[in-house]
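Hi all, long-time lurker, first post. I run a small reading group and we've been trying to get comfortable going from sequence to structure in the token notation. Rather than ask abstract questions, I figured I'd post a concrete chain and ask someone more experienced to write out its structure so we can walk through it together at our next meeting. Sequence below, copied exactly:
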Amino acid sequence: MKKNLKMPESVLKLDKRELAVYLLQGVLIVILFGYFFYRSVIITICLMPVIYPYILYKSREAEKKRDMQLLMQFKEMINSVSGSLHAGYSLENAFTEALKDMRQMYGDKADIVKELMIIRSGLDNNRDIVSLVHDLALRSRLSEIESFAGVLSVGRRSGGNLTDNMESYVRVIEEKAAVIQEIETMVSARRFEQRIMNAVPFLIIFYVELTNKGFFKILYNNLFGNIVMTVTLGIYILSVYLSKKIIEIEV
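-- Answer (accepted) --
Happy to help. Here is the structure in token form:
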């Protein structure tokens, strides 16, 4: 029996434009590797399957970026809900008001707006707000939204002061958002430096080739040269991977 190959969820979330951009980038990277490391059209064609792991990697990066954007948007949504509760709105109406606020802030295409529209639709069908927020937590898989769903659930069950609980949660998530933004500011310069360092080996090879024609000729179109350049390519890819891991800071 044939097994259905399921595409990773991060890839499925890419829109057509993103997929086209990453595909083009992957092709250009393969051509770059093929030229600088092998100078062989056949080997370059054989390297084409490398495009898939590249797209997978970029899709996961894009997913992390979307999650970060959703978290920041969610923070603003919580502020809006908290403000509406203070003004005397019910929890359900507070989410309706938050939808209006988020539309003004981010536009209809923002993830938080789409999620609030789902919640609004659920409320119109007489679904409980707590279960709708739990569904949002499951879709987003963000721990902060899961915690918020827990705050709502406990507040509803215990009959406690939901407004005070919401304010406490708002402070916690604002502190975390501030830490994340501070870290992003700190590593942005390092990330730029890393991109420059990734390009340096190719610039060196290009410069040497430009000033000393045929200097690397011995490394191309022979078995020994191909082995040496393959090892070099592996070291380069490992170095790029390690440099990215070094500047990644999880919060």
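A couple of things your group might point at:
DSSP finds ten helices and no strands in the chain.
The mean pLDDT is 85.
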